[in-house]
Amino acid sequence: MSDVTLELDGHVAVVEMHRPPANFFDRVLLQEVADAAEQAQSSGARAIVLCSEGKHFCAGASLGDETGRLDPRAAATLVYEQGRRLFALEIPVVAAVQGAAVGGGLGLACAADFRVASAATRFEANFSRLGFHHGFALSATLPRLVGVTYAELMLTTGRRVLGEEAHRVGLVQQLAPEGAEREVALDLAREIAAAAPLAVRSIRATLRGGLADQVEQALNHELDEQEWLWRTEDCAIGITSSLERHEPTFVGR
Fold first, then answer.
1. What burial letters (b/e) apply to 94-115, b meaning 16+ CB within 10 Å?
2. Which long-range contacts (CB under 8 A, 24 or more apart) does 243-250 make?
3. Mean pLDDT of 158-173
4. How far is CA 48 from CA 66, 104, 105, 186, 243, in A?
5. Rounded CA separation 186/180 (Å)
6. How many CB atoms lie within 10 A of CB 33?
7. Which domains does the chain carry?
8. pTM (2 decimals)?
9. Kind of pairing between the strands at 122-124 and 100-102
10. 43-47, 123-127, 242-246: which has the minimum mean pLDDT?
């Protein structure tokens, strides 16, 4: 049974993930998301709302069974192959972000064209707090949204950015009341869908021109950096500290 559903409402498609409460993703879930989004596009949808069931939009990646049979790079590569498909879509995607978008969940949110969140939503690039390099092409997407300096601030500190600040810096395009993120995202998607669809695709292609190539280069570089950092003592410390819910003390090895 799929953990992703697709609903069509006129020219708006709703692609929803169903792994509450945290909606951790793996290769299978991202594949189902990409399949649903591509099906929506081929069925005549003009905009997509990407959302999830439960408390959080997405709390990050879980490589699941892949790590049992593959090395970490190979497992991550399979996940990112599905993520690439989201960047290849030709129609706008609006992410309805409730709760947390953490790590790979932030990457998934940033793959969308627009993000709708509430003041209570939190965005967190927690990679440096875990001891390794960020992924999901955040090297390409995050600076486009918030600027290079603020992206560096988020990525190097791993700090939490709440909805109002995220809106102020450009990570979030519309603020919604807490609990109404999906409804506001649907309103935005309907507004997009009411515009001339060929013009929308053309405008989007112009503004996102070159992004697919940047994503490809970013993913390859990010995997290179992740591969060696996963083997460090600091990474072991960071992951253990996260699991045990205490602050890490890194040693630089």
1. bbbbbbbbbbbbbbbbbbbbbb
2. 248/129, 248/131, 250/131
3. 98
4. 29, 20, 18, 9, 34
5. 10
6. 25
7. 1-177+197-253 (3.90.226.10)
8. 0.95
9. parallel
10. 242-246
